[in-house]
Write a structure and sequence with these properties.
It comes from Kitasatospora aburaviensis. Keywords: Acyltransferase, Transferase. With 153 residues, the chain is an alpha+beta fold. 33% of the residues lie in helices and 34% in strands. It contains five helices and seven strands. The chain has a seven-stranded mixed sheet with strand order 1-2-3-4-5-7-6, sandwiched between helices. Helix 4 links the parallel strand 4 and strand 5. The relative contact order is 0.16.
């Protein structure tokens, strides 16, 4: 599958990002809409994967700067990867891993040396294969078990 991953720019791209997240998180996983949308969307960098037919296939969010400092407890040089979502038709193609690497590259461009993410427990193996290590206890986020994971870049 030939895809392009780019930084989402403008309202049309953000609509595609939100469409993927709606399909994966709200429809498939049953996450309440008011828990999916937050004020971090406006200050984050969103990556968007587009298929050869122009359809949105996946997305991920990079939280950086002051927001990342607040959310990581003030750890300098750490960014957060979040809202990684790949539509059902594109799963198993390697696109999720490509999006993770694209977020890491975007973090490096912003001076990051470490990435933190909050993984659904069922995705721990996926992130571990990409070099992430789980830390701390399991916790619930939107009613789904999660663990914090980090990777040094």
């Amino acid at each position: 599958m030939s895809t392009t991953i780019r930084v989402a720019e403008g309202e049309a791209d953000l609509a595609l990002v939100h469409g993927v997240r709606r399909e994966v998180f709200i429809v498939e996983q049953g996450i309440p809409e008011d828990e999916e949308w937050d004020d971090l969307d406006g200050t984050s960098e969103h990556l968007l994967a587009i298929g050869p037919d122009g359809a949105a296939l996946g997305t991920a969010r990079l939280i950086h700067g002051e927001q990342a400092l607040k959310l990581t407890g003030g750890i300098e040089g750490r960014v957060l990867l979040g809202r990684l979502a790949v539509v059902r038709a594109a799963r198993g193609t390697g696109l999720g891993a490509e999006l993770v690497r694209a977020v890491e590259a975007a973090g490096i461009r912003r001076g990051a040396h470490e990435v933190e993410l909050h993984a659904q427990v069922r995705a721990l193996g996926f992130y571990a294969r990409l070099g992430y290590a789980a830390e701390g206890p399991e916790y619930l986020d939107a009613g789904i078990p999660h663990r914090t994971m980090t990777r040094v870049l």
